[in-house]
Design a protein that fits this description.
- The structure is a single chain.
- The chain is globular, with a radius of gyration of 18 Å.
- The chain has a single domain, classed as NADP-dependent oxidoreductase domain (TIM Barrel, Alpha-Beta Barrel), CATH 3.20.20.
- The termini are far apart.
- The chain is of the alpha/beta class and 274 residues long.
- The protein has helices at 26-39, 53-62, 83-97, 117-130, 143-153, 171-179, 198-207, 211-222, 233-240, 249-256, and strands at residues 5-7, 13-15, 19-20, 43-45, 71-76, 102-107, 133-139, 159-163, 183-187, 225-226.
- The longest helix is centred in the N-terminal third of the chain and has 15 residues, at 83-97.
- The structure holds NADPH dihydro-nicotinamide-adenine-dinucleotide phosphate and ligand LYEC3VGP.
- The active site is at residue 50.
Amino acid sequence: MTSPTRRLNDGRTLPAIGLGTYGLRGDDGVAAVVSALAAGYRLVDTALNYENEREVGEGVRASPVDRADVAVTTKLPGRHHGFDATLRSFEESLANLGLDYVDLYLIHWPLPAVDKYVDSWRAMIRLREEGVVRSIGVSNFTAAHLKRLVGETGVIPAVNQIELHPRFAQRELLAVHEKHSIVTESWSPLGSGVGRGTLITAIAETHAVTPSQVVLRWHLQLGAVPIPKSADEQRQRENLDVFRFELSDAEVEAISTLGSGRLWDADPETHEEF
Ligand SMILES: NC(=O)C1=CN([C@@H]2O[C@H](COP(=O)(O)OP(=O)(O)OC[C@H]3O[C@@H](n4cnc5c(N)ncnc54)[C@H](OP(=O)(O)O)[C@@H]3O)[C@@H](O)[C@H]2O)C=CC1
Ligand SMILES: O=C(O)C(=O)[C@@H](O)[C@H](O)C(=O)CO
């Protein structure tokens, strides 16, 4: 099956689930993108810093799926913040991908200490106006960073890609996203094996699905777009097969209150990404 879509605040749409690609490199990386598209994924997430844009672009071009039907996302790295540097970085990403446009371009981290994310955002608005980027968004932005972007440019990001998994449910930020019609994308959606805990295993047994499927279904019912990474064709298919069962409100709530915090302490206020 092909994944359903969510509506963005810029009038475009985004598939409801995507393939994360961090660590997918070389021929195996290309093959993983091709197998995901064959399975029905229509959203692929990369970044200049993953050093696999070439593999992602090659996978998209090698797949029999029409390029126009695939939402390719990439991200601006910290060392390229600033107006002109962002425009140059985008050219580099486009050349790596071997594509003539990108569907979604994100600022990877806000880097508040560098204080150039508003300049980068203005460059991204320019790229969208030029048509080489279809939708623009951010990643790892807090409510305060979002407020500043909108206050200074009047342009609301279509997406904020954030750490979101059962250990870190981010309720306050999700409420801010809802208020501004910003679609939440969830990174590390499987929460590093959190699905193997007792509660989620029990819920999985109730629905005759796997713990990973329960966790991904939880994201969907929160209104978020999870981007699970898998190099394995079978697990890619498993992760996409989450549209034929529904969690109860009580199950969603129980998973949301598991808690315990961030996976690797990457606080957007202080995280220094190069
Ligand atoms: N914006 C940002 O700052 C960040 C963005 N990201 C993005 O989010 C994506 C996803 O996050 P990531 O950190 O990769 O973590 P995920 O939550 O996607 O987990 C990936 C791990 O889970 C395994 N896995 C996948 N599916 C299953 C399954 N059904 N059952 C058991 N194990 C499974 C994978 O192994 P295997 O491959 O062997 O299946 C891999 O080890 C990244 O790839 C990247 O695109 C990630 C971190 C930060
Ligand atoms: O997006 C990812 O997968 C990351 O790990 C990023 O957080 C990024 O590559 C980074 O911050 C490295 O320090």
